[in-house]
Specification:
The protein is mainly beta. The protein folds into four domains: about 1-25 and about 185-370, Trypsin-like serine proteases (Thrombin, subunit H, Beta Barrel); about 45-100, GMP Synthetase, Chain A, domain 3, CATH 3.30.300; about 105-165, GMP Synthetase, Chain A, domain 3; about 385-475, Jelly Rolls (Sandwich). The chain is built from five helices and 32 strands. The strands form eight sheets. It has a six-stranded antiparallel β-barrel. Belongs to the peptidase S1 family. Keywords: Disulfide bond, Hydrolase, Protease, Serine protease, Signal, Zymogen. It comes from Actinomadura meridiana. This is Streptogrisin C.
C-alpha cells in the first residue's frame, strides 16, 4: 500500500497547498360537590394592553390612523387625522392626538426613500416613521446631504424631519468554531471562541497578520499570538464588529454548544469541524495523546492523534466531544475526507489547554454556554466562603492557617473553578508536624466536592491546579 503523506491543510488563495509532511491549515380533573366560582380574567400587562389597543384602533380607524406609542410607561397615545375619532380612541382606553399625516402616507414616504437607498450618501445613517412627531425622520451627520437625498427621492420635504447623528452603523458578526476565515495567503478554520477573539492553528498565521471573514469581504482581526513549530496554536484578536460565541458549526444546520474543556481520555469519541469539509462533522476515537509529529516545517510535540479525516483548509478547526467539551485545534493529517472516512485516516490536533493557560494570564478564557467564570453562588450552602487564584501546577491552602475542631462530624467542601481547567481539592489533617491527606476529590473538571467524617484535630484544604489557570470559589463547613 502506498505510504500516505502527512499534510497541513491550508487553502491558498490560488488553490490548495499540499506539501509532504505539512500541517492541516492553512450553530386534572377534580370533582367537587359544588360548582367552583369562575376564575377572574387575568389583567393584561401594560405592554400587552398597549399592543391590543393599537391593533384594535388601527383596524377601526383605517386610513385615519396616524400611529400609536406609549408615554410615561403606561399611557397609550393614538394619533388620528380625524378629530371626530377622539371619542372612539378614549373609549378604547387611549389618549387621542390630532395629526396631519396618517400612518399610510408616512409609510409610503419611507418606502420611497427605501427605493432610493442605494443612492443615499454614507453620511445618511437611517430613516424611519416617528408617529409621535408625525414625520419621517432622516438621521445624518450632514443635514445638507440628507436634504439632497430626500429631494432626489421625490419625497415631500414637509413630511420629513432631520436629526443630526454621528453614528456609523456596522454589521455585527458571530465567531463560530469550525467556520472559515482568511489571511492574506491562506484559508483556515476557527477552533473555539475565547474572550476577545478565537483560537486557531499556529501555522495559519504569524503575530500581526490580518484576518478577514469567510467571504473575504469583512475585516475580522489580527493574530495576537502564534506558535509553530514546536506547538501549533495561535489566537486572533477580533474587532468590535465580531462577537465570540460558545458555538461550533456542525454544518447540518445545527450547532454544538461548548460547555468547557475537560480532557477526554484515549478511546473516547470526538468530532471535528472545519471550513473545507463543511457538509458535516467527522467523528472518531482518540488514538493517542502526547504525540510528536515531524512535519517538513519542523516537529510539533504533545499532539492528540485521532481516527478522523481532514482536508486542506480545515486547519485551525475545532475538535470536541459530543458533550461539548473543547479538546483540540486541527493541525495536520495523513488522510482526506474526499472519499469518506476509513480506519486508516489519521489527523493530529493541538490540545487547547496550553493556549488557554497562556490567555488566562491576561484574564482571557474559553467562551462557554454559562460564561466560563466560576459561579459565586455555587458553594452557597457552606458556612465559610473564600476565593483564590491559581496558576497551572500551583496549589493554594484554605484557610491559610487551617482550622481546629474538637468535635467528630462531617467536613464538607465545595470548589468551583472556571471552565477549561482541571482543579482538584484535598482535605488534610495535621499529624504531629506533618499534613496528611484524609480525603480528596480529583475529577477531570473544574468543580469538586468533599464530604468526610473525621474526629477532633486541625485541618486544611489544599486546592490544586492540575491544569489551567484562573480564579476559583471555595466553601467549606466544619463539625
Amino acid at each position: 500500500m502506498a505510504r500516505k503523506q502527512l499534510v497541513l491543510g491550508i487553502v491558498a488563495a490560488s488553490g490548495l497547498v499540499v506539501a509532504p509532511v505539512t500541517p492541516a491549515s492553512a450553530g386534572s380533573y377534580t370533582t367537587a360537590s359544588h360548582r367552583a366560582a369562575p376564575a377572574a380574567a387575568p389583567v393584561p400587562k401594560p405592554v400587552e394592553r398597549a399592543a391590543g389597543v393599537q391593533k384594535q384602533l388601527k383596524m377601526t380607524l383605517g386610513s385615519k390612523f396616524g400611529g400609536a406609542w406609549v408615554e410615561h410607561g403606561s399611557t397609550v397615545v393614538v394619533a388620528t387625522t380625524d378629530a371626530a375619532s377622539a371619542a372612539k380612541i378614549r373609549a378604547a382606553g387611549a389618549t387621542p392626538k390630532l395629526v396631519t399625516y396618517d400612518a399610510r402616507t408616512l409609510g409610503s414616504a419611507q418606502a420611497e426613500l427605501d427605493r432610493h437607498a442605494r443612492s443615499a450618501p454614507k453620511t445618511v445613517t437611517s430613516w424611519y416613521v416617528d408617529a409621535a412627531t408625525n414625520r419621517v425622520v432622516v438621521q445624518a451627520s450632514s443635514t445638507a446631504a440628507a436634504r439632497r437625498f430626500v429631494k432626489a427621492s421625490g419625497v415631500d420635504a414637509a413630511k420629513v424631519r432631520y436629526a443630526r447623528s454621528t453614528a456609523r452603523p456596522r454589521l455585527v458578526y458571530d465567531i463560530v468554531g469550525g467556520e472559515r476565515y482568511w489571511t492574506t495567503k491562506y484559508g483556515c478554520s476557527v477552533a473555539f471562541s475565547v474572550t476577545g477573539g478565537f483560537i486557531t492553528a499556529g501555522h495559519c498565521g504569524e503575530v500581526g497578520e490580518q484576518t478577514t471573514s469567510a467571504d473575504q469581504q469583512t475585516s475580522q482581526g489580527t493574530f495576537g499570538g502564534s506558535s509553530f513549530p514546536g506547538d501549533d496554536y495561535a489566537w486572533v484578536d477580533v474587532t468590535n464588529q465580531w462577537t465570540p460565541t460558545p458555538k461550533v458549526n456542525k454544518h447540518d444546520g445545527t450547532y454544538q454548544t461548548i460547555n468547557g474543556a475537560v480532557e477526554a481520555p484515549v478511546g473516547a469519541t470526538v468530532c471535528r469541524s472545519g471550513g473545507t469539509t463543511d457538509t458535516q462533522i467527522w467523528c472518531g476515537p482518540i488514538q493517542q495523546r502526547d504525540v510528536t509529529v515531524n512535519y517538513q516545517e519542523g516537529a510539533v510535540h504533545g499532539l492528540i492523534q485521532a481516527n478522523i479525516c481532514a482536508d486542506p483548509g480545515d486547519s485551525g478547526g475545532a475538535l470536541f466531544t459530543r458533550e461539548g467539551q473543547a479538546q483540540g485545534i486541527t493541525s495536520g493529517t495523513s488522510g482526506s475526507c474526499s472519499n469518506g472516512q476509513d480506519s486508516s485516516d489519521t489527523t493530529y490536533f493541538q490540545p487547547v489547554a496550553e493556549v488557554l493557560q497562556i490567555l488566562a494570564r491576561d484574564g482571557r478564557q474559553l467562551v462557554t454556554e454559562d460564561g466560563g467564570n466560576p459561579d459565586p453562588g455555587a458553594c452557597g450552602d457552606e458556612e465559610t466562603k473564600l476565593t483564590g487564584t491559581l496558576a497551572s501546577g500551583a496549589s493554594g491552602y484554605q484557610p491559610a492557617d487551617g482550622y481546629t475542631t474538637t468535635a467528630t462530624g462531617a467536613h464538607t467542601a465545595c470548589l468551583d473553578g472556571p471552565d477549561g481547567v482541571d482543579f482538584d481539592v484535598y482535605l488534610q489533617k495535621l499529624n504531629g508536624g506533618t499534613w496528611q491527606t484524609v480525603a480528596q476529590s480529583i475529577s477531570p473538571t473544574p468543580d469538586e466536592t468533599i464530604n468526610y467524617t473525621g474526629g477532633p484535630g486541625t485541618y486544611r484544604y489544599r486546592v490544586h491546579a492540575y491544569t489551567g489557570t484562573g480564579e476559583y470559589h471555595f466553601g467549606f463547613s466544619r463539625p
